[in-house]
Amino acid sequence: MLSQKVRRQFLQYFKDKQHAVISSSPVVPHDDPTLLFTNAGMNQFKDVFLGNAVRDYKRAATSQKCIRVGGKHNDLENVGHTRRHLTFFEMLGNFSFGDYFKAEAIRLAWEVSTQVFEFDPNFIWPTVYTEDQEAFEIWRQYVPAERITRMGEKDNFWAMGDTGPCGPCSELYYDRGNAYGDARNPGEDIEGERYLEYWNLVFMQYNRLIDDNLQPLPKPSIDTGAGLERIISLKLNVDSVFETDVLSSLIKSIEEVSGVPYDYHNQKLGPAFRVIADHLRCLAFAIADGAQPSNVERGYVLRKVLRRAVRYGRMLGIEEPFLAKILPRLVEAMGSDYVELEKGKHRISEILTMEEEAFFRTLHRGGNILNQIIERAQSHQKLISGEDAFKLKDTYGLPIEEILLIAKDNALTVDQKRYAVLENEAKERSRSTQKNVQQVVAENLFADYIQKLGPCQFLGYVQHNATGRVTAIVVDGRNVDEMKEGQEGMVVLDATPFYAEMGGQIGDIGTLKGDHLLFQVKDCIAPYNGIIAHVGKLEKGMLKLGMPILAEIDKVRRQKIANNHTATHLMHWALHKVLGEHIKQAGSVVDEKRLRFDFSHHKALTQQEINKIEDLVNEKIRDNQPVRWYEIPYEEAQKQTEIKQFFGEKYSSLVRVIDIDYSKELCGGTHTKATGDLGLFRIAKESSIAAGVRRIEAVTGSEAEALTRESDGIIATCAAALKTQPQKLLERLEKLLEENKHQAQELKSVKKSQLGGLATDLLAKVEMINETPFLAAELVLTTEELRSCADDIMNRMSSLILVLASPSDSKCQIIVRVSEDLVNKGFKAQDIVKTIAPIIEGSGGGKPNSAQAGGTAVHKVKEALMKAKEMIAKGS
């Protein structure tokens, strides 16, 4: 791919110019709490620019993965709607830490632009800071003065913060011609359509003090950044970064997944392809580097990005998780240069799918309310009302920031003042009543239901099917009298065995049946206190208010859910036994495949603790105790300290207790009849999800058996590889480790003896150059061995200049040592290294008596050693 070619050519160019090529840092800056995401190439060198650290190189080049999706650098709302904005992009950059400055930086940028990028020099327009006459005069060596534009502090002065390192910039623009506007220079091109900025050179020469004064830095530095996607768009002469190779290949994959052809000029659907392509890259790289969607900090931002991609996917008709289907194309395009994508592809796929499934469940509950709101706003002054915005928040769980993005994506605005009033009113109501947020939204649909008909009767604790009467039908967010075949919506019965999702337990699925009628229930929710709503699609017939209907849940699925819910209670009890009474539940999810339990705890669980928890739960499963339930007044439950109650949960006056003798909890969920029904319990994963909050994921029954089989299979495979029996695997491993340790010690002893002999042989080759003892040799040793050999030789010689080199297939190491007496005569190890390192196309540094260098020009080692000898002969 062209992107890969240019990326590698750029890095090779600077490598040839004695720059250390440094790998991209993660997009998740784990060591910098001031950043949500890495947003510039200089982030990983910030400590160097601030003077808090020193590297063993003075010039560097990188291709840095960047994400700009929050805070000051937030391009999210523009992505997909402009030609150049991206949330994820690659920033090519070269850096000088007190080495070269403006003249060299400008020369390098010009050479790369014209020789590596192969841009026509007649169309390159530099800009300089208004007061930077020095940069202006340097650029006049390359372009006519009329093509150099002076710009103000906003555009051409960079600062790390309110105080600290800062300096003027010089940006490089490429003139794309009259087809993109009639602006005469970058300063007149406000939208940046004709003159596309592709590189920014920052001349870091000042330190801004707290009184706003600029103090010259003792060692001015260079920080540059060139957007790879923009460069590729210019090389291909295409209108948009989305027409470049990597992004266009992702768009092609989106076409295949959606079945919809991509048309760049389609104002309605075109942005959807671009948004998905960009957001997938952003999500994949962030997850590969250790982040994942959540409700806090960078996880919150990623969840917003993912949900935006899903919403645009729905515009293309995609109604199921799809991002993981596009991921292989991204791995194929970029995985060879960013191996973290290849290594993490399975985890990335799993997290994307899990998050999409959760969001689709949320979206499906709202039916077509979102589309209705958008359509209504488009016909009413392009404004989403405060009421509708609030409904979106409570129905979909969308924060106002995301609602604003939805509005922008559809060329709409939001009545934020009215929204704020409604939100404050809701907060006041929540303080004085026990309504949850969904109840506020559902008042329009079910305000009179409870008064007229009373609450729905839940029969699911003892029945799997029951006949009920249709008491409400909701289609497209409105109460209707009938539902026609093919329509989707919600159906409410006066009595039902279906459990509505709450308390962490997912809702039931199943069918509603009648004469020549079939309604497929895909989810079951409680949109209002006392209401059980069956969400799904009428596959056959016509559904009317008042008609009797048979409600039947998926019995097998319900049993698995019940087993996992009971297992959650058993595990909660075991956690208290093993870790202590400080354990507090912080959330849970129970479905038919697994259970997930979040709890407060200050550190990771040990394997012994995990084993003990499993043992306690499985012991209770084998006891096959009955699982009883009963209802008591909440006041009475509060007096019984052995009954667990949960984090901010709101209870009615009559509460349900799940009683397994040793474990008692308030719970409205469904449970199995006896602990023995669980069969087997296994913990699949234990992890941290926030400071002081741990998460356990576990399985029961057949899923637990499968997990056990998988573990047994791994053990059997390892045992076979080591040619032993599984039960003797540990013994075999310990023996091998002991043998390896013994052999390593023997090898070290032999190596030491060999190195001693080698040092003796080398000392016989010491020569006198102008009365200065000098020894240079080329050896085939590891870096550690080379250092050990150098130490041995210097310990035996009181006066010597030593230069040892060790070449390998792709790189070489050079060590220089100078005895103290010769240092006093002016010979310095770091000076020798600085002179010979460029010969091997490397860099290095050190102290007067000891220095080292590394390089890649293995074939020039002899030349480097000869150069060192020449330096000694000259007395320098």
Verbal overview:
The chain has 876 residues and is α+β, with helices and mostly antiparallel strands. The protein is 40% helix and 25% strand. Strands 1, 2, 5, 6, 7, 8, 9, 10 and 11 form a 9-stranded mixed sheet that branches. Strand 33 (767-769) and strand 34 form a beta hairpin. The radius of gyration is 34 Å and the shape is globular. The two termini are 48 Å apart.
Q: What characteristics describe this protein?
A:
globular, 6-stranded antiparallel barrel, 876 residues, alpha+beta
Q: Give the % helix.
A: 40-55%
Return Rg in Å: 34 Å
Number of beta strands: 38
Give the rounded overall mean pLDDT: 87
Question: What is the rounded distance between the termini?
Answer: 48 Å
Number of helices: 26
Largest sheet: number of strands, sense, barrel closure: 9 strands, mixed
Derived structural class: alpha+beta
Shape type: globular
